[in-house]
Write a structure and sequence with these properties.
Mean pLDDT: 84
Number of domains: 1
Distance between the termini: 44 Å
Helix content: over 70%
Low-confidence stretches: 1-9
Shape: globular
CATH architecture: Up-down Bundle
Largest sheet: none
Number of strands: 0
Radius of gyration: 21 Å
Order of helices and strands: HHHHHHHHHHHHHHHHHHHH
């Protein structure tokens, strides 16, 4: 087995590395995506004081983003399947960057709700576009690792935001912070349009690397409609998995500072280091989750076994989150929470890879769009549930119980609907189209 693994490693090395340049661009875009997403949270105290927002006003603005994200995810999934990753991603990036910069011109809650809605529409294209690019540039055995690497950009964005945004705000004001970060983002857009092509359209990519990328079985060439995709239990397995587990990441993003502040009496300055530590662990988890299943594939495991064994390990590692509320030491709690966020990101790297394991390349963006919409809807439900529980019980007990258990439930449902992760029968798809 080790000899076979070494042969695969040598073949990948000989193929070339240009595909990892593409992965690096996706990583950078995802980091930018999260900087733009998180800025309103970092600047909330300053903006709320200036514009006299209540907590309910701020919550309504956040919900408009999530609502738009749910709608846009579905639309961009279909769009990138039709026009490809290059222009689909460029369109999403342009829209969300313009919306991000418009925050600097917003004057009241209604205007902020509008620009947050536009931001949600644009940012929803990040993962459908990025995963489409991974599908175009990576063979199945490397996709989970590539997805894990570019998904790690989300944690880098979460780390960078509280570092750079206060510096710009102190020097030039919060409105300038939105404009300046947006202008720098356009540098990435110019590079993407100049660099990105499909492998066979890109000059300088070796024949060996193209052969490596195309080493999987050929796909059906037609675009597959949503109505047809919804007939497949594979689509529902992915969507339900996202509906159940995406909300836990939203919980970490939107409620973790609040939890640390109340539980350990931290303020805006002192909870910075714990948050950075948690997101660094999340980054490591994202890469490790992709590496683990890719390694299992290289050792001869099927895609079914590699993905599900890795996801099972992730689901188990989230379980201790329930005991966080009983931990009196801050850094012990950071370790438990960081383990859970790392496990989520490792889970995410693998569940995001399932559509490319099960569907033709022409359908991957649409399936991811369906799942992303389900995840965003789940996030809205989780936000309402969290707010209700904290208002009525003032406790995270049931919230953390849900967070710790849903991954095992999601994996059980995925296993029930898809006992074996394998390609949907192309002949069946063609028969449906006839």
């Amino acid at each position: 087995m080790a000899e076979a693994d070494a042969v695969i490693d040598r073949a990948a090395e000989r193929a070339g590395r240009y595909r990892w340049v593409i992965c690096g661009l996706l990583f950078a875009a995802t980091a930018i995506n999260y900087v733009d997403r998180q800025m309103i949270g970092v600047l909330k105290p300053t903006m709320s004081a200036e514009m006299h927002w209540t907590e309910s006003t701020y919550a309504d603005i956040v919900i408009w983003f999530q609502f738009a994200y749910a709608i846009g995810y579905l639309g961009f999934g279909k769009l990138v399947d039709r026009i490809g990753a290059r222009w689909g991603y460029a369109l999403a990036f342009t829209l969300w960057t313009i919306a991000h910069m418009l925050h600097g011109a917003a004057r009241n809650a209604a205007q902020f709700s509008m620009v947050r809605f536009l931001l949600g529409i644009g940012e929803s294209g990040n993962f459908p576009g990025g995963l489409k690019a991974v599908t175009e540039w990576f063979p199945a055995r490397e996709r989970a690792l590539a997805t894990g690497i570019f998904n790690a950009g989300s944690n880098v964005g979460a780390i960078v935001t509280p570092i750079i945004v206060p510096i710009i705000t102190i020097a030039m004001g919060w409105r300038a912070a939105f404009v300046i970060t947006g202008l720098f983002s356009f540098v990435w857009l110019a590079v993407w349009i100049a660099v990105y092509r499909r492998p066979r359209e890109k000059a300088g990519v070796s024949a060996a690397e193209i052969a490596w990328i195309e080493s999987d079985p050929a796909d059906v060439g037609e675009t597959i409609s949503w109505t047809r995709l919804l007939r497949y239990r594979q689509t529902w397995a992915f969507a339900i998995g996202k509906f159940l587990t995406d909300p836990i990441w939203w919980l970490f993003l939107f409620w973790l500072p609040d939890y640390l502040s109340k539980r350990y009496d931290l303020d805006l300055v002192s909870f910075g280091p714990p948050l950075v530590a948690i997101y660094v662990l999340s980054d490591l988890g994202s890469v490790a989750g992709g590496f683990a299943s890719s390694r299992l594939l290289r050792h001869g495991f099927s895609a079914n076994a590699a993905r599900k064994l890795t996801m099972l390990g992730c689901a188990i590692l989230v379980l201790p989150i329930f005991f966080t509320q009983y931990t009196h030491n801050l850094w012990a709690a950071v370790g438990i929470i960081g383990l859970a966020t790392a496990a989520h990101q490792a889970w995410s790297a693998n569940i995001y890879t399932l559509p490319s394991d099960m569907f033709p390349r022409t359908a991957v963006g649409s399936v991811i769009g369906i799942g992303g919409t389900a995840g965003a809807i789940g996030g809205m439900v989780m936000a309402k549930f969290t707010g209700y529980m904290l208002d009525t019980t003032h406790s995270y007990t049931l919230i953390f119980a849900v967070a710790g258990s849903v991954y095992l439930i999601a994996l059980a449902i995925i296993q029930l609907l898809v006992p074996r992760v394998e390609r949907v029968d192309v002949a069946t798809l063609e028969a449906d189209a006839a």
